[in-house]
Amino acid sequence: MRTVLLLLAALAVATGPALALRCHVCTSSSNCKQPAVCPASSRFCKTMNTVEPLKGNLVKKDCAESCTPNYTLQGQVSSGTGSIQCCQEDLCNEKLHNAAPTRTALAHSALSLGLALSLLAIVLAPSL
User: Which residues span the membrane (predicted)?
Assistant: First the structure.
């Protein structure tokens, strides 16, 4: 019985970080919103704002394995330049200017571990 519970706890911890991130994935001249499930390797939602010479403003939202933010001050964007914003929560790239901090997968792992340990404590408590 204990072996089964330990296997269930290990499974809960292992599957926690495997939950797929959801991001808006689209390209538009304005703030687009198209939710999509990201590949398992993606850890970030990414928003890139650029100024294209003949097209004007271009907003591209996507899933990303890695992301390095690059913020430009308003009024300092010239042709071909822009900003990159990164976040790590479901659909966090909804707004063009997202102030949400990036988080690591550690938060998801800690939640899964806490859940598994709580379940294990509840099941084993009567036998102690």
Answer: 105-125
